[in-house]
Every structure is written in C-alpha cells, then in structure tokens.
C-alpha cells in the first residue's frame, strides 16, 4: 500500500531522486525569477492538491509516492526561497505550528445541536409519524446516512480557504483546533470548486485498521493503548502539539452545511453533492419514503456494520427537504427533522477462563471474570465485571462456562447470561474467599451490604496502594506524573507506607528507581510539592473516607474551617448538613476515630499540606450574593456538585432564570433556560468559563 510521508519536514521518501527532474544541477538551486516562481508555485499547488484528493479522498492514486514527494519538495524549496509567497492554504502548511499552551475558545455561529435517538423500530416509526404530523402530509423523503463514531468538527472557509477548525464543545462554545485540523489530509485547505465563504460540519474519526496499527505502535513504546477509535480520534484532535496530531491517522467525512440558504441549497442531497464537489469525503447515503423500508435498512446495517472500514454506531435518518426542516425546527436539544437509529449493544459468546479477585481502596473484594478474548463493538474484550458475590450466585456463573457478554454503557463489559445448555459438567463453582487474597486477613460482609471487605484497614498492601492512587488522582490531589508504576516501586522499596509519606520524598530517593532520569524525578517532586496548595475540599476527598465523594467533600469543606474541626465533628451535627446523611456522618466520625488515620493527618500537617478553608474562605466573599442558574449536563460536576460549589463560595444557586440572575452556566444539551437568559441579557458561561471564573 502506498503511504505518503511528506508531512514531516525533512522526511521525504522521494528526496534522493530529486535532482534529475526539477533541479538544474548547480547545487540544487533552481533558477527562477519571482514571476516564474509564483507561476510554478501555483502550478505545483494545483497538482499536489489534485493528487492529494486522488490519494486520500478517492483512494485512487495516479502517481507514485516518490513523484508526489518530489513535487512537495520542490514546492517547499520554492517557498523557502520566496517566503512572501507562502499562503496558509498551501499544501506545505499542513504541519508547522508550534505546540500551544492551550486552545482558544470559539463561540459557534449557530448552536451545535445533537441528535435524538431511536433504539428500536417502534421509535423510528414514532419519529417518522411526528414528522408527518408536523408537516401535515406524508409525502416526505428521508436520507439515511451512517452515524460515524468519532467527534464532530466545524470547519470555516473564507474565500475558499480553510481558516478555522473547531470542536463542538458544549454545543455553544468549542475549542479552536485549527493546527490539528489542518493535518487531516481529507480536509482540503482550499476548496476545489468555488472560492466561497462556507461553514460546514462533519465527523473526525480513525479507521479500524489505522487504529489497530496506532495502538500496536503505542504498545511497542510501552504507552497506554487507546480504548477505541473514537477516544483515539478525540485525544488526537485535542493534542496541543500539531506534530503529534499529524502522526495520528485522522480522517474526516463532511455531512452538513450551516446556513444552506446562502448556498442556494434546497435539499440535503444537494448539500452532500456540494460538499463532494468541493473536495470532501462524504457519507454513504440513500433516499427513502417508506418507513418500513427505512427500518429494514437500519436492520441490514445492524448486521453489516462490521464490514465497514470505520466504526458506526447507528444510522442517521434525516428529512431531505431543507425548507421542511426549518418548519419542523428543533427542541432545546435536538432537531425534529432527524433521528439517530442506534444499534443495539453487540453480544457475543465466549468462555470464562478464570475468576480473579481484586481488592480496592476500601477493602472491597471485587470478582472479575477473565474471558477468552472476543471482539465487541470494535474492541477486544478479555474481562468482565461480576460486581459481587450475589451477582455471581444470581447468574450462576462458573469457571469454564460459555457466556454471553455485552458492553455496558461505554466500556465496561458485563456478562448477560450463562449458556447453561453448553455446560459439560467440568465447570467449577466459584466461592468468594474468606480471607483477603492479598494480605490474608479475614474478610467481612456487613449486614445490608453486598460487598465483602478485607478487615485489615491499616496494613493491607492492596488497600494501601489503591488509597495512595486515589490520593494522587485527578479529582483528588491531582499529582501529575505519580502513577501506578511509580507508586508500586515506592512501596516495594519501602520509601513510602501511606500517601502522606509522598511529601517527605526527595529527588535522591527517586533517581535510583528504575528508568527515572534526574529531570523526571525533579518534576515529580515538584508536582508533589505543588499539591500542598490544593483546595481543602480536594484534600478531604483525597483522604478516601468511605462514602465521602467529591460532593460530600465540598459540603464538608464549606462547613468546617479546618481539618481539626472536622475531626471533632459529631455525628448529629454532621447530619444537620444538607445532603449529609447518617451513612456519611457515621463514616466521617469513624474515620477520625482511627488512630492510624489521625497519624497520617498529622504527617500531612507537618508536611505543610493545606488543611483549612482559608482559600475558599477568601473566595467566599467574592461570590457573595451572586445568583447562578445551571442548564444542561456538565462534564466535571453533577448539578448538585456545581450548586454546592457556588454555595460554598457564598453564591446562590437558583433554578429559574429571571432578571435577577447573574450567570447562567450552560453545559451539554442546554434547555430552554438558555434562550431565556439570552433574552434577559444574563451572562452565559460555558463549563470552562465557569471554572475559570471560580479561579
Ligand atoms: S447530523 C443536528 N450526521 O452524531 C445534529 N451527525 O448527536 C446534526 N454524527 O454530534 C448531526 N455521523 O458528531 C449527523 N451522518 C451524520 C453523523 C453525525 C455522526 C455525530 C455528530 C453528532 C452526533 C449526534
């Protein structure tokens, strides 16, 4: 297979063959005047664009890699000589930017809605019926397309040249990822046909084959493989270094044009034609009127989806007539003129090879089935969670069983059922151990709990390790560069025994550890040091008190000025706090009764870790009295958490937008509050802006 390698500067496979064709022989410098240079540059750009299109979009290359590279090389040389002739849409400009510190925000010209879902034939019929009802007739054409499982992007062209590529973000505000977008060869830097101003939307994705190769490379370099092609694509688009993005095999399919009237488009089919003529890859599509035929097609694709070179998670059904689309309009979340038929989760049979127990931070013993690997929805599955003892009993799962597995939610696979008809009698029943498989201490199953726990809370190595991992994790102390590998080594070398010990490490302790360079050791020590300044609620969460999640930690940090006050709190007074129930209250009290925990906290104090609400206290005055309303889903907080956060800083979360509202925070799929806020001139913040605002 051909593969062009021109995009990294100085890395052209055809380089050595250059001289004879385009060079004039004397030291390789072409003899050109500015005028002829300009002409040649334009000619080369045209040719290169044509061949890029043939190769990447049509998959029908007409020339060899070497020939192509030669043209690129010549163009680059000419542009080096005449830098004033470089334009941003030149094929040489796909890579070249410096790594960024962060992406700037882009407010979309039009809210980027998402699609409603139909999970079965009945829901497809309801969608079509609603269209009939709202349209007042049944003579309606629908276009079916693949729902590509990637991430959507919005591209802006001015006078035919790509000026911006942005992510969808929360639908209102996305990120400007132009340098990364430019590295995608199926995105033309210059439109093929007319030099128009146009905004369009499409999906960035990675083909299955390219994904496998990418993951293999990552594993060869001992890097964490991506869970699936969509994660790989999303991670690549959000790379701050465009050089890295350029090495990722990203692809793009365009599926809509914003403001179609401006381009005299009347039907979706015409939109797709226009996109195709302008040099984009477009989706498979077919036109139907009859709902039963639509359903049949959806079902056909359910069976055939695996034959495609990229992953799709459904079929999008769209009204063809654009005027009718306007008439149908949209709800706050999604248009009424389209729906996504979502494929049912794939289920496959495999064999349970073994059942293993892992011990978590709170001592919980969790059984996991080790499976004979199977391909499910595009990734290889070799484990499934069994949750707990009751679950194993209920499903009567035995080692050696043939089982049906599916992916629950996004990633975690689960066992749907055992295929008992295929039992041979050789299967082994599984018993939960009565001792911790890691430390050997007896286990205990508390009344009303499904979970069995290791009772050795102070020195079980598994609990210790998981507790430390929790402490350094992103939502807790967020200590970058201190992960499982390092913690395992530190524990093995007895350099630490609990998370507080991290603060007493120095560079010299780390350097002798396997594969740790001085600079890297220095960075890790600095990251640990910096974490001493984390907000009080993070520290409370990081302690790992059972049942105290981020939300409860925020409430506790708002109610108690420092760790000593919290440690002295009685159950009754804790229960008085909103959202703190008896279970959490009990757990907090017993945490602080434990001598070992008190010792760890003393060590944190000695190390100088922030254990009081000073900082939050200062901010408290800043938000005093400000009214916040939330709409849509936030990435980093539940609605309650976000409201508590506002409350803990002295602000007032309210549920309705009114003239008195100061801020509306809009997450994913915002509701009608957004329009209301706009009408009333209330300041609208995205989640990122909200976070920045609090800082
Ligand atoms: S049309 C108003 N067509 O699915 C929404 N979306 O929520 C217009 N997607 O964010 C979207 N393939 O990223 C459309 N052929 C296709 C698509 C597609 C994938 C994604 C898109 C969108 C999500 C739906």
Q: Given the C-alpha coordinates, what overall shape results?
A: globular
* Class computed from helices, strands and strand pairing: alpha+beta
* Order of strands in the sheet with most strands: 2-11-10-3-9
* Largest sheet: number of strands, sense, barrel closure: 5 strands, mixed
Strand content: 15-25%
N-to-C span? 51 Å
Number of domains: 6
Chemical compounds bound to the protein: 2-(butylsulfanyl)adenosine
Main traits of this protein?
single chain, 695 residues, alpha+beta, Helix Hairpins, D-amino Acid Aminotransferase, Chain A, domain 1, OB fold (Dihydrolipoamide Acetyltransferase, E2P), 6 domains, five-stranded antiparallel beta sheet, 24 strands, 37% helix, binds 2-(butylsulfanyl)adenosine
3D structure, described in words:
The chain has 26 helices and 24 strands. With 695 residues, it is α+β, with helices and mostly antiparallel strands. It folds into six domains: 15-86, Orthogonal Bundle (Helix Hairpins); 116-294 and 302-337, DNA ligase/mRNA capping enzyme (D-amino Acid Aminotransferase, Chain A, domain 1), CATH 3.30.470.30; 347-444, Beta Barrel (OB fold (Dihydrolipoamide Acetyltransferase, E2P)), CATH 2.40.50; 461-533, 5' to 3' exonuclease, C-terminal subdomain (DNA polymerase, domain 1, Orthogonal Bundle), CATH 1.10.150; 536-614, Orthogonal Bundle (DNA polymerase, domain 1); 619-694, Rossmann fold (3-Layer(aba) Sandwich), CATH 3.40.50.10190. Mean pLDDT is 88; it is low at 1-29. It is globular, with a radius of gyration of 30 Å. The two termini are 51 Å apart. The structure holds 2-(butylsulfanyl)adenosine. 2-(butylsulfanyl)adenosine (IVH) binds at residues 113-115, 145, 147-148, 152, 168, 203, 255-256, 283, 316, 335, 340.
């Amino acid at each position: 297979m051909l593969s062009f390698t021109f995009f990294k500067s100085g890395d052209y496979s055809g380089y050595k063959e250059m001289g004879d064709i385009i060079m004039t022989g004397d030291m390789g410098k072409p003899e050109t005047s500015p005028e002829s240079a300009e002409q040649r540059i334009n000619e080369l750009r045209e040719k290169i664009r044509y061949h890029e299109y043939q190769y990447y979009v049509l998959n029908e290359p007409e020339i060899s890699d070497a020939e192509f590279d030669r043209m690129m090389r010549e163009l680059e040389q000419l542009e080096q000589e005449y830098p004033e002739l470089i334009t941003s849409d030149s094929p040489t400009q796909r890579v070249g930017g410096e790594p960024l510190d962060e992406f700037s925000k882009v407010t979309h010209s039009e809210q980027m809605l998402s699609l409603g879902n139909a999970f079965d034939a009945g829901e497809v019929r309801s969608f079509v019926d609603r269209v009939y009802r709202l349209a007042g007739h049944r003579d309606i054409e629908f276009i079916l397309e693949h729902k590509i499982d990637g991430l959507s992007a919005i591209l802006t062209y001015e006078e035919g040249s790509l000026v911006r590529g942005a992510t969808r973000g929360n639908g209102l505000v996305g990120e400007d990822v132009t340098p990364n977008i430019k590295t995608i060869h199926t995105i033309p830097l210059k439109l093929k046909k007319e030099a128009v101003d146009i905004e369009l939307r499409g999906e960035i994705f990675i083909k299955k084959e390219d994904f496998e190769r990418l993951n293999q490379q990552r594993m060869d370099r001992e890097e964490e493989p991506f869970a699936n092609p969509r994660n790989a694509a999303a991670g690549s688009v959000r790379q701050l270094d465009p050089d890295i993005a350029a090495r990722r095999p990203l692809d793009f399919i365009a599926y809509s044009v914003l403001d179609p009237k401006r381009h005299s488009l009347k039907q979706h089919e015409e939109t797709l034609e226009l996109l195709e003529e302008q040099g984009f890859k477009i989706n498979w599509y077919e036109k139907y009127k009859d709902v039963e035929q639509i359903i049949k097609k959806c079902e056909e694709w359910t069976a055939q989806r695996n034959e495609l070179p990229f992953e799709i998670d459904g079929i999008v059904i769209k009204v063809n007539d654009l005027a009718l689309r306007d008439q149908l309009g949209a709800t706050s979340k999604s248009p009424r003129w389209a729906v996504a038929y979502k494929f049912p989760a794939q289920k496959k049979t495999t064999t349970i090879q073994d059942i293993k127990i892992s011990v978590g931070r709170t001592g919980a013993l969790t059984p996991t089935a080790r499976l004979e690997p199977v391909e499910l929805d595009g990734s290889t599955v070799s484990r499934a969670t069994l949750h707990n003892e009751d679950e194993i009993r209920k499903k009567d799962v035995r080692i050696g069983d043939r089982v049906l597995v599916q992916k629950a939610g996004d990633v975690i696979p689960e066992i749907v059922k055992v295929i008992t008809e295929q039992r041979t009698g050789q299967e082994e029943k599984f018993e939960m151990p009565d001792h911790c498989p890691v430390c050997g201490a007896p286990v205990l199953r508390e009344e009303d709990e499904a979970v069995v726990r290791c009772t050795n809370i102070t020195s079980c190595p598994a609990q210790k390790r998981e507790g430390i991992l929790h402490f350094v994790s992103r939502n807790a102390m967020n200590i970058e560069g201190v992960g499982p590998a390092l913690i395992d080594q530190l524990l093995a070398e007895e350099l630490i025994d609990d998370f507080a010990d991290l603060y007493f490490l120095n560079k010299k302790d780390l350097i002798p550890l396997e594969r740790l360079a001085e600079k890297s050791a220095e960075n890790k020590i600095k990251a640990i040091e910096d974490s001493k300044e984390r907000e009080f609620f993070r520290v409370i969460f990081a302690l790992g008190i059972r049942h105290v999640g981020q939300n409860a930690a925020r409430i506790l940090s708002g109610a108690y000025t420092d760790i000593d006050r919290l440690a002295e709190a009685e159950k009754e007074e804790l229960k008085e706090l909103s959202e703190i129930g008896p279970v959490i209250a009990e757990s907090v009290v017993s945490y602080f009764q434990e001598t070992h925990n008190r010792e760890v906290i003393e060590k944190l104090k000695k190390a100088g870790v922030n254990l009081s609400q000073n900082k939050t206290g200062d901010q408290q005055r800043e938000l005093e009295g400000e009214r916040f309303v939330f709409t849509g889903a936030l990435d980093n907080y539940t609605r309650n958490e976000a409201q508590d956060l506002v409350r803990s800083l002295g602000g007032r979360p309210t549920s309705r937008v009114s003239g008195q509202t100061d801020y509306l925070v809009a997450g994913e799929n915002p509701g009608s509050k957004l329009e209301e806020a706009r009408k009333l001139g209330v300041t609208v913040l995205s989640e990122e802006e909200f976070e920045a605002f609090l800082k």
